[in-house]
Amino acid sequence: GLAPGGVFVLEGFTPRQLELGTGGPKSRELLMELEVIRQELPGLRLEIAREIEREVVEGEFHKGTAGVVQILAVK
After folding, report:
1. How far is 55 from 60, CA to CA, in rounded Å?
2. If you write DSSP's letter for every residue of 7-32 in order, what string do you get?
3. N- to C-terminal Cα separation, the chain
4. How do 7-13 and 63-74 pair as beta strands?
5. What pLDDT shows up at residue 1?
6. CA-based angle 20:21:25, to the nearest 5?
7. How many beta carbons lie within 10 A of that of residue 71, not counting itself?
8. How many Å apart are CA 13 and CA 22, to the nearest integer?
9. Digits of tens for pLDDT over the chain (75 positions)?
10. In angstroms, rounded to a whole number, what is the distance separating the alpha carbons of residues 62 and 22?
11. How far is CA 10 from CA 48, 51, 60, 61, in A?
């Protein structure tokens, strides 16, 4: 459903988040891994595709270091 030249942006928690405990899903099935996402985006050029740890401040129970995957892709 992405038009030619369209941009896809994604940030999601990785399994590392379970260890960090700063919010996000508590179920491994709801967490994202970079290599799996790469396989799920055929036909897109990945401008940014990385797993990093970054600081989040999103409320009292959702702050601190988080493990995330970040994707910026273009069709």
Report:
1. 14
2. EEEEEEE-THHHHH-SSS-SSGGG--
3. 10
4. antiparallel
5. 82
6. 115
7. 21
8. 10
9. 899 999 999 999 999 999 998 888 999 999 999 999 999 999 999 999 999 999 998 888 778 999 999 999 999
10. 5
11. 10, 12, 24, 22
DSSP 61: T
The DSSP H or E segment spanning 37 is helix 34-40
Q: Residue written as tokens 């399994």?
A: 15
**Which contacts of 18-23 are long-range, i.e. CB under 8 A and separated by 24 or more positions?**
19/67, 20/53, 20/64, 20/65, 20/66, 20/67, 22/56, 22/62, 22/63, 22/64, 22/65, 22/66, 23/56, 23/58, 23/59, 23/61, 23/62, 23/63, 23/66
Q: Is the pTM of this model over 0.70?
A: yes
